[in-house]
Amino acid sequence: MKNSKVFILCFVTAVLLLEIKTCFAEDQPTNQITEKSLLALAEKGDVKSQKMLGMGYWDGELGATANHKEAIKWFLKAAQNGDSEAKSLAARVYLSDSDFENGAKLLKEAAEAGDLTAQTDLGSLYLKGVGVTKDEAEGIKWTQKAAEKGDSTAQYNLGVSYRDGIGVEKDQKKADEWFAKAKKTLETTK
Fold it and tell me: Measured between alpha carbons, how far is 180 from 160 in angstroms, rounded to an integer?
């Protein structure tokens, strides 16, 4: 009985190895298979695959050739299918391509939907006047929302705002409190 189990295990392992070898044959590079399989799932509406494909097109990983238009397309499909972070990722692609207007528009939508990173980034855009009309009060509003929900970058940015008097009155005590919160947040997430 024990020998038959060993035989079956060896047989299954050999079959799997043969299938893997076939999948990764020289005429089918690993990166193309990854892109093709993700594309097939993404086209069927698989949200995780849509987002992963967007990431692949954004940075050229997962076998996809870097293509920012395709990245945005797949991030937006994932967002339409319920992935709350995907719209924020599409915004970052726009921003990385210096399309600040579209990037800011999508960040605002993502921030309004509750995405913390989008709230932090939108706050920074308003504080600097990038892609939007400079509005320090609006920048502080978004930064504060994200900071209060525990985003360490927003907490740090709020500390800088209080230290330097950007959008708020200078207040070193509040600045130190926000810097301490940012430090604590980072230490607890390690």
Answer: 12
pLDDT of residue 76: 95
Angstrom distance (rounded) from CA 127 to CA 150: 20
66 Rama class: left (phi>0) / alpha (psi -120 to 50) / beta: beta
The yes-or-no verdict on residue 87 having pLDDT over 50 is: yes
Closest CA to 89 of 108, 105, 75, 104: 75
Q: Which residue has the higher pLDDT, 25 or 147?
A: 147
Does residue 147 contact residue 181 with C-beta atoms inside 8 Å?
yes
The domain 90-190 having CATH identifier 1.10.630.10: the answer here is no
Region 87-115: what's the mean pLDDT?
A: 93
